């Protein structure tokens, strides 16, 4: 069988905000694809771009090894790849052009190439795999190895007579347990561990228990796994956890699903499987408030080792949540947050500003929610239009000069919203300060000789005056467009 070099196109070092965090995750989607191909007899290796400086580092590998195929297979479980950042797109184009000189067949599978297949094929890629790519990739390589026609393979895009042939989409894989465990052995985990040490956080690996999301938030792109929701069995995931714990000593995990534990009783069964194998872990997840409020979900999560949950809160305004087709209620954000805290589970909020029709009243409600509920952490973004969403269709006429962010800290308003980019950049800083103020005041009320708590109290001397100044500046920026 031919040799395949797998790669990806996200470079943490080219994204200053993410590299500063020093908490990189291996390209999990890439490892699934490599594992499946290896199971089917192919020789596979990995050029992991996550920790590389630039695409040119692939050249010595190409000069030393005769490769048949380069598969640039992005990690569809990492939200950063879904953002289609232009720095990563340009880096991928550079890699394609470098590899093309070595007469290697180039296959690309990513959110960005699914949306912009013309650009990738014009830059020299031979094939683009649309959507979930493992089965399409296996079928394509088997076909190429036999010198048979690939023209009818589902999920495939390629050039034919100077035109683009886009085949029908492939149905997503329903029984995820058919896939072998990801090829973790291809990753230089020691390098990841060394970087994590700089973050002062326990080393953490990423695991995906599901694929897809059935909810209809109209700004959320789903180019890889779509609106279908399929789950690994609890047994499969616990076996993977057992392997990672025994092989690499890892006991903390980021469950990188769009929504963790949506399938009825999945969390409860997961907890039972962990107990059977006497595995003690900690982990953090993303979830929805309405899901967490069902039955004994929070109890089961707490028992199984849940450390922190990131809630897609988005806004403290019901008007904005409804405009987003979020399907959640503000009162449920309050209720779920309080219940999680009672179980000693940390709560973090994803917040989104700048959505269509947003006004000062909506912004004030969101800030008030943060100050009252005092989450452990917050992540703030502005509404970001991605191809294939209803939101994109509403604002696409405004996206003439810029349609994607350069990196994840770009924060540019790419459509005509209520306020300017400068306003939302300053608003982001203000909300973080109000958040830190609320934490500091809480720690002052419940004073203890804890170094982190004392630091947050001392920093009130900075946050109070600077937040006051930010409010004055924001008032002036309200009329800027």
How would you characterize the overall build of this protein?
- With 481 residues, the chain is α/β, with parallel strands linked by helices.
- The protein has two domains: 3-166, Rossmann fold (3-Layer(aba) Sandwich); 202-418, TIM Barrel.
- The chain has 20 helices and 15 strands.
- The protein has helices at residues 16-21, 28-39, 59-64, 79-82, 86-100, 111-115, 117-122, 134-145, 189-199, 234-248, 266-276, 289-292, 297-304, 318-323, 330-342, 360-373, 390-395, 421-445, 451-458, 460-477, and strands at 3-7, 43-47, 69-73, 105-109, 127-129, 156-160, 163-166, 205-207, 210-211, 230-231, 252-255, 282-287, 306-314, 346-353, 377-382.
- The strands form three sheets. Strands 2-1-3-4-5-6-7 form a seven-stranded mixed sheet, sandwiched between helices. It has a six-stranded parallel sheet with strand order 8-11-12-13-14-15.
- Strand 14, helix 16 (360-373) and strand 15 (377-382) form a beta-alpha-beta unit.
- The longest helix is centred in the last third of the chain and has 25 residues, at 421-445.
Could you name the CATH topology of the largest domain? TIM Barrel
Overall average pLDDT: 95
Q: What is the CATH domain class of the largest domain?
A: Alpha Beta
Oligomer category? single chain
What CATH architecture of the largest domain do you see? Alpha-Beta Barrel
Number of E-state strands: 15
Task: Give me the secondary-structure category.
Answer: alpha/beta
- Helical coverage, percent range: 40-55%
**Count of helical segments?**
20
Low-confidence stretches: none
Task: Supply Rg.
Answer: 23 Å
Task: Give the count of structural domains.
Answer: 2
The main sheet orders its strands as 2-1-3-4-5-6-7
The biggest beta sheet reads: 7 strands, mixed
Proportion of β residues?
Answer: 5-15%
**CATH superfamily of the largest domain, called what?**
Aldolase class I
The termini sit apart by 59 Å
